[in-house]
Amino acid sequence: RIKNFSTSHDPQLVSMYYQFGRYLLISSSQPGGQPANLQGIWNESTNPAWDSKYTININTEMNYWPAEKCNLTELHEPLIQMVKELSETGQQTAREMYGAKGWVTHHNTDIWRISGVVDGAFWGMWPMGGAWLSQHLWEKYLYSGDLNYLESVYPVLKS
């Protein structure tokens, strides 16, 4: 079916992939839980690839791109909570590593919300994880227009 898609008319395949994407987020991200990570809840290894962390130089963000667009706003909550927590640990990292105000996090974090450099200089020195993740806070506001929500995340966005 996938092989023939480029030469045939199969709108149901597109619909099926859309619903599959929704299913992946629904099954791996719930309010009050942890955000979806690289392998999600399907990891079977005690030593998974990339430690099954949150790779925040696009992978984690990609998991949540459909959240608002697919009317799954409540599933954004674990990621937004993680960003708030990273803004706290990232303040120390910004101060100690860069002598800067605000907060920073690099390309990878985990359940303890590490924000410093990990996994070597080539990937690890990428300090834009917080900026990329913060786009999700703003997008949630753009979809909801909820000023109370914006007020609650504004300190994270500002710093």
UniProtKB/TrEMBL annotation:
InterPro entries referenced in this protein's UniProt entry, alphabetically: 6-hairpin_glycosidase_sf, 6hp_glycosidase-like_sf, GH95_cat
Organism name: Gaoshiqia sediminis
Keywords: Hydrolase
GO biological process: carbohydrate metabolic process
A single GO molecular function term of this UniProt record: alpha-L-fucosidase activity
Domain Glycosyl hydrolase family 95 catalytic: 1-158
Protein name: Glycoside hydrolase family 95 protein
